[in-house]
Amino acid sequence: MSDTLTAPRPAAPLGDLGVMVRRATTLTIRNGDALITSLALPIMLMLLFVYLFGGAIQTGTAYVTYVVPGVIMLCASFGASLTAVVVTHDMTNGIMDRFRSMDVRGAAVLGGHVVASTARNLVSTLLVLGVAFLIGFRPSASFVDWLAAAGLLLVAIVALSWASAAVGLLAKTPEAAGGFTFFVMFLPYPSSAFVPVDTMPAWIHGFADNQPFTPLIEALRGFLLGTPVGDSAWVALAWCTGILAISVAATGRLFKRRTA
Amino acid sequence: MPGEPAIEATGLTKSYGSVPVLNGISLHVPPGSVFSLLGPNGAGKTTTVRILTTLTSPDAGSARVAGHDVERDRGLVRRSISLTGQDTALDEVQTGAENLLMMGRLCRLSRRAATRRAAELLEQFDLREAGARRISTYSGGMRRRLDLAASLIVRPAVIFLDEPTTGLDPRSRAAMWTVITDLARSGVTIFLTTQYLEEADKLADRIALVDGGRIVAEGTATQLKQQVSGHRLDLTLTDRAAFDALAAGLRDRALLPDRERLSLSVATDGTAGHVRALLDTLDPARTAVTRFAVHSATLDDVFLALTGHATATPDKERAGV
Q1: Complex ipTM over 0.90
Q2: Which residue from B133, B190, B90, B48 is spatially nearest to A94, judged by alpha carbons?
Q3: Is the CB of A8 less than 8 angstroms away from the CB of B79?
Q4: Partner residue facing B81 (CB), from A19, A101, A260
């Protein structure tokens, strides 16, 4: 052993985050099943809605155009929720203890997963958009609209990924964390993602109008299709910031509790 | 810092909920020695390691590792130690070399230095060929070796090994022992937990027997064996009545009583005179004992004599207790 290796290591949180992003990305790419599911599922759902259900749904525009913002959100939320599974995995298989004993901050490990999740989701969003274009999606967005849509989506993905990381810290087993992805996948249905809310039974309007996915999808729709955005972008942004703030605070506390 | 102990713990206690796990553990480990915490599942070994490696806080008591307080100077302790836990702390889908490179980077080595160090360690731990393969293809023994290698990227002052050979086949266990012996020879302090008496006997300079969150005895293997008589007399009785009568008469002196098999043991110095005298005292009518056998004392006997039960109990400690 060379003697330089005995030098004490100064704390380097940013360097650690870089290593952890790289690690999480490698894990994502090599967990073939999860990757294929998170990329293929949204596309299959979109084809399902456009070709099987779309003919029966009246939204006032070409259904593919109506549904794409919803599919993008569904894709993002499902993709982000997979973070819960990898975080629980890290917490239960001993590697988190090794990282902590090496003086790596828990936030760096979780941050690595969130960054990798965000990158994976942006790729799957691009794939969904690509297929959408092929089957007739014709947005009327200007460059600035695209930027606004991308920015909002980015904030949403980061917020949902942190929320998933918090769930991952809460879950006792990766299987339990997997159940969360299921819940998140269903949340966009009672929103304006696939059908207009006013076609739903009245008792569900309260929930559908006021859950975070509706303003998110309405804002995306507004940016991409030129429908009125109204205050939905701000409401959506408020939701995302709120979720992000609560999630970051929650992960800090949960991590401490879990490692007590 | 010369003269300072590598590990010093005083009165560590810890409960999980209402379940007490540690009931006042005190330790003193001189630098450069191999110290083993020996005990059955659930004795508190892993919890002790977790406290000494700053992963969990004691309810009471204090500990210093490599001269730093485990509560106040967590960062300094963490930079002085390495931990190899019971679970393989590696990424299954990364290769051996990639895992080591990642750990090297987390030890703040440059990419080049980390790559070079990974290659060295793979060579040293006889994993050069396996370095390019994913961990998911490794055998249990290879995982443990790589796991240990991953904790040696930067030379630590104190190495913690939590049950390094649990679940390994005899050949892999022997290979791990060689690796640990080599490490000990390099002068590093090693803190080892095990439920195998043979392992502690073979590797450790000093052994602490731990049971129910307490240290019940401490010393070298030889000193501990001297705490019980040098030998053990195993007796087989004729029937239940004879067994019950003898067990009742011996009380605490009866070791390993087994009512089903009608067998129990007593301590002896192993000389013919003592064995003869014992047999005469225990079975004056010469009808109760059918067979006897004399064994040299093992650490097992020490454990039994001190705790009243054997080390290997089919229990689970993996939950982190």
Answers
A1: no
A2: B90
A3: yes
A4: A101
Query: CA B49 → CA A21, A82, B16, B277, B298, distances in Å?
Result: 29, 32, 15, 46, 26
**How far does the CA of residue A254 sit from the closest CA of chain B (Å)?**
14
- Which of B80, B102, B108 is opposite residue A10, by nearest beta carbon? B108
| Tokens 């040696």 -> residue | B152
- Identify the residue whose tokens are 């005899």: B170
Q: How far apart are CA A129 and CA A43, in angstroms?
A: 9
Neighbours of B157 (CB within 10 A): 19
- B204 burial via Cβ count (<10 Å: 0-12, 13-18, 19+): buried
Report DSSP letters for B92-110, one per residue: TTSBHHHHHHHHHHHTT--
Residues of A (95-154) whose Cβ lies below 8 Å from B: 95, 97-104
Tell me which chain B residue has its CA closest to the CA of residue A260.
B56
CB contact under 8 A, B89 and A93: yes
Size of interface A-B (CB pairs under 8 A): 88
> Residue B126: which of B60, B194, B86, B172 has the closest Cα?
B172
Q: Side chain identity at B245, as an amino acid letter? A: A
- Hey, which bits of chain A come out as E strands? none
**Bridge partners of residue B217, in order along the sequence:** B209
Q: Which two tokens stand for residue B226?
A: 């001297």
Residue B37 near residue B48 (C-beta atoms within 8 A): yes
Cα separation of B318 and B141, whole Å?
19
Q: Model confidence at A180, in pLDDT bands (50, 70, 90)? A: confident
Which residues contact residue B72 at a Cβ distance below 8 angstroms, ignoring those fewer than 6 apart?
Answer: none
| Nearest chain B residue to A106, by CA | B55
Q: Is the pLDDT reported for residue B295 higher than 90? A: no
Give the ranges where A135-201 is alpha helix by DSSP (H): 143-170, 174-186
Q: Are strands B60-65 and B34-38 parallel, antiparallel or unpaired?
A: unpaired
Distance between CA atoms of residues B196 and B186, nearest Å: 24
Q: How far apart are CA B128 and CA B183, in angstroms?
A: 19
Distance from CA of A255 to the nearest CA of B (A): 12
Structure tokens at B311: 């080390």
B239-285 residue pLDDT tens: 999 999 998 888 878 877 888 889 998 888 888 898 999 999 999 98
